[in-house]
Write a structure and sequence with these properties.
Number of strands: 16
Largest sheet: 5 strands, mixed
Shape: globular
Number of helices: 19
Structural class: alpha/beta
Strand content: 5-15%
């Protein structure tokens, strides 16, 4: 009887083989600050770069490039240097294995989108490593910790934004525009006060309003402006004709629907502005595209399961109902929007936390423990560094006293002071790294629990922007619709929400994935393991 090597003979029939990109020792370094003033000062950028280079050298990484090195806001990921870096690491012939940053908030403060980007990079064999917040993202707990850090960075950013917007709103209520003015205005300071005055383009815009009243269309106005030396697209012409800033009014999101009188110089009177916009409103030629459509919040999120393309939304003229449809030629992916909205809400209900105060406290303590697990040594290290910093500072003071009392000469003073100052600066840099983290962890966790407890109603009551943010936060890889099977699936749920939902099930003594609406959802399947569910869920919903 012959012996057969089953593992070799049956290898071609194996399933679930993962094609993992080979990891190497090549890396890139990304640094950034949020404002031009910080970039001009350059201290923070140099500190970030030095810390990243030290980590790369210590761990035998080969630095293949530097990116950033300037000011870019991280509240969104539409950043020039950031996207240049992403393109480089994905397409570089020298396979990049790691993006080294000083802290996760230097990489991104966009929360859900940051999690999505790091997940996509991970599939390419590229990890993001923060030298001041080290986590092993190859493990489930490490990925969870990094995701929590991304969400907390976004939360801290929102707190800062709230404080900033309070000052912006106060200025706007006084009629003072706080951001760069629209095209056609210069900022002039007179007697210490800021004024907005019309420049050359502003005077041409004034003519454009008059031409529109005379009956010229947008194309004709555009041609006249081009002939006068201002090459402007017709879309821009339509934009400034609809902007009330030119008639002395101020509109801003911070004003929450209010329209106020501003202090800027007027290009036209209010009467002229309203007459022009009445003419524009009567123009029925062409078609309009409604990008932010509250009736179709799943567009740019829902994908065709056949081709992977994002579904678009349209309104049926016959029945006046919205549909989602794939635009790929040959795809027949088409479904009523309200049906998919109902399914999506039921899916959110499966994830919405419904726990009492005692359960909420347990979940909060577990989340805090998970976060602090990665930072357990920081407290002791910080205390030790503070002691070293104090001792070094005392040495410098003592050295200066000895020099003043002529106990040592200038040469010895200079040599030892340079040494002690270098030691102090090195300790200060390590202290700065140990200080990075969430400013108020308990409050952040409470905020996350509060958010998770109202996922379904928040989506149902939110506007288009609110719904889009929630969708991408909870389901970073979107959702796919299969027309043949008439079912939806999502590859992964944000591990933070998965973690809380699984803990809630355990506390309620429910089985993993025990869906309360089995006709709509096949269930929430959680990967088993020592740690609570951190990878996410595989979710299906159908009408079968």
């Amino acid at each position: 009887m012959s012996t057969i090597d089953n593992s070799a003979v049956f290898a071609p029939f194996a399933k679930g083989r993962k094609d993992v990109r080979a990891r190497g020792s090549n890396c890139v370094i990304y640094t950034r600050v949020s404002t031009k003033e910080q970039a001009d000062n350059n201290m923070s950028l140099e500190t970030q770069k030095k810390a990243c280079e030290q980590y790369a050298l210590k761990n035998s990484f080969k630095i293949m490039g530097y990116f950033g090195g300037t000011y870019e806001s991280a509240k969104t990921d539409e950043r020039k240097h950031f996207n240049n870096m992403l393109t480089f690491v994905k397409k570089s012939k020298e396979r990049i294995s790691t993006i080294i940053v000083y802290s996760v908030d230097r990489f991104s403060r966009s929360g859900a989108n940051a999690i999505y980007i790091t997940e996509q990079l991970k599939r390419e064999g590229i990890s993001v490593f923060a030298v001041s917040q080290p986590t092993d993202t190859t493990t489930a707990s490490g990925s969870l910790q990094q995701n929590i850090q991304f969400i907390f960075s976004e939360y801290d950013n929102q707190l800062r934004r709230e404080k900033c917007m309070a000052g912006v709103k106060e200025k706007l209520l006084a009629g003072i525009w706080c951001t760069p003015p629209p095209m056609g205005y210069d900022i002039v300071r007179r007697d210490g006060r800021k004024s907005f005055v019309l420049n050359t383009k502003g005077k041409l815009i004034k003519k454009a309003f008059a031409w529109k009243l005379q009956g010229l269309n947008i194309e004709d106005i555009c041609q006249r402006l081009n002939a006068m030396g201002w090459k402007v697209a017709h879309q821009r012409v339509a934009d400034f004709l609809r902007n009330p800033f030119y008639c002395g009014m101020i509109v801003h999101k911070a004003l929450e629907g209010q329209v106020l009188e501003g202090i800027q110089e007027k290009a036209v009177t209010k009467e002229v502005f309203l007459q022009v916009n009445n003419i524009l409103a009567q123009n029925t030629q062409g078609y309009s595209i409604k990008v932010e459509n509250d009736d179709a919040p799943l567009k740019r999120f829902l994908k065709c399961d056949s081709c992977g393309k994002l579904l678009r939304a349209y309104k049926s003229k016959k029945i006046q109902k919205y549909y989602y449809k794939c635009c790929t030629k040959g795809c027949s992916c088409n479904k009523r929007a309200d049906d998919l909205h109902d399914r999506f809400k039921k899916l959110l209900e499966e994830l919405t936390l419904n726990v009492n105060d005692d359960m909420a406290n347990i979940i909060a303590s577990r989340m805090i423990a998970a976060y602090e697990k990665a930072n357990k040594d920081k407290a002791a290290t910080k205390s030790d560094l503070e002691g070293q910093f104090t001792e070094t500072q005392k040495k410098i003071v003592r050295l200066e006293e000895r020099y003043i009392n002529e106990e040592i000469d200038r040469e010895m003073f200079s040599r030892y002071k340079e040494k002690f100052v270098a030691e102090r600066d090195e300790i200060a840099q390590k202290l700065a790294q140990s200080n990075s983290g969430v400013s108020n962890l308990q409050k952040c966790v409470e905020q996350a629990l509060s958010y998770a407890s109202k996922l379904a109603p928040a989506w149902d009551l939110g506007d288009y922007g609110d719904k889009q943010r929630l969708q991408n936060l909870v389901f970073p890889e979107g959702m796919y619709y299969n027309r043949e099977k008439d079912e939806c699936r999502t590859p992964r749920i944000n591990s933070v929400f998965a973690y809380m939902a699984e803990l809630a099930r355990v506390l309620r003594k429910e089985k993993p994935g025990n869906s309360t609406s089995k006709n709509e959802f096949a269930g929430l399947v959680v990967w088993a393991g020592i740690e609570p569910a951190t990878h996410g869920f595989s979710v299906h919903c159908s009408t079968n």
